[in-house]
Amino acid sequence: MTDEIDRQLLAAVQEGFPITSRPFRALGDLFSLPEDEVIARLERLKGEGLVRRIGPILDMRKLGCSGVLVALKVDAEEADQAAQVVDQYKEVSHNYLRPDPSGYNLWFTISAPEERIREILQEISAKTEKPQLVLPTKRIFKIGVKFDII
Amino acid sequence: MIDKSELELLKAAQDGIAFEKRPYLALGRKVDMPEEEVLEKLEELIDRGVIRRFSATIGHRALGIVANAMIAWRAGPEEVARAGRILASFEAVTHCYERETAPDWPYNLYTVVHSRSREDCIATASELSQASGLEDYRILFSEREYKKTSARI
Questions:
Q1: Which residues 51-110 of A have a C-beta within 8 angstroms of B?
Q2: How large is the ipTM?
């Protein structure tokens, strides 16, 4: 379970992790905690699934990538199988079963250069033989998941 | 765009830093770069906007946020910009995108909403509808999460 210090730490590292030679010491200075304790607490929070990873969140567009939301028309009972095909691609970041009356039940996002996106969609089409709904990103109004922790 | 050494650095960094006293030294060892240069490059990539944030990704399920809904909205061409900004302004909305439509799919605005229950998501959708004036929408609840990572290069 988490205590008040854990929650403060989580809120801080979610905002930003220090880019300095001794980042855990810098974090500790904020909360009057020893460096070792900051590391131990974050290790534990990672073990508990509260911290997934500490690292860069990239602007894929600045790296020449486009984004697309794709839905496959696949029966719920066949979704697991299709999802396995989709998940193989490292360019697929999110993939969910989101049942909809339209029959488009499997929803996933691809981020890659446009040509590569076309290639992946063709491969998925060949492997699953399911109709695709392809919805390219036109504009981003908001991105980035931050949660209220405290 | 970025050069080859920056690409190598980002590829190594996106796996997440090590939980040790000098994680950037450890990261530099993977790509054969001194710690000081790692720190400089990361700062520079943040300044250039290639790195949007250097931070922890929080496992929201562990926080009890279990319901995740994508709401697809149909907005007319003249109202999409205004509606998009209104939807994005809500704290419950973590993502808000405008997308192209398809012949059998007229929805062009997408919001992702995280919440503690389905009922909360439905209530949020109705609030968003009132605030934005968009009345045609459908809620797509996630029933299974097959994959969830950060976008990677």
A1: 51-60, 62-65, 67, 69, 71, 79, 83, 86-87, 90-100, 102, 104, 106-109
A2: 0.85
